[in-house]
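ugh ok fine here u go
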Amino acid sequence: MLADVRVVLFEPKFPENVGSVARACLNMGVSDLVLVEPHNFDLDKALPLATAHAADILASARIAGTLAEALEGCEAAYGATARTGGWRRGIMSPATLAGAVHERLLRRARVALVFGPEDKGLTNAETALCTALCTIPTNFQGTSLNLAQAVVILLYECFRKALEQPFEPAHQPVERGCSVAERETLNEEIKRALLDVDFLREQDADYKMMGLRRLLGRIDLKRGEFNMLMGVCRQVRWAARKAGIAGSGGAES
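structure:
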């Protein structure tokens, strides 16, 4: 039921935790595990925690050089975070996340759950690539969860949601949603258009774009809508250049 879910571990520090995550993936029917720049990864240290049952998942885990590479082929990416505030507002609960994931799984879209390193979690640079963020409520005296604990909690919520409404093949073709890479392309095009009309300034453009990224992340953007918004951005940039008011968005890319 969660065959189209990918678990992405960004810069995990301890191979034992990776092994425990592989076991959690097995428990919830997930076989797609990707590690981004793992620190001192040692398969021999990870295997005992994975147990023999999850050894195949661990052995077939892919290692990616960047988070963007790890998210290739995914329509949405949901980042797990314990930090809130600032632009990290409107964060999903695990149950809400499960509903959002399930909607995409119903149309056979691939979805990624992204988890940061054990000591500091995901930074703003990584969450910028995520469609939305999720936090697991805990007692205020212990807000930090073990990596494998966080993975199994979110996967369990997704698995439980899938049990409520199992996947059934659609009789009509469904318009596919945008991939994570396409969303990033759109975000960059929007930023350039807003720089050209001086709505954004180069020195703080990335920070101010975080709010727009969160807004767009809440929209289940289809490919036709993506094409439309890209066209709007290109037209805005063309009009700015024609009027001689193009700001720091730069020349046509």
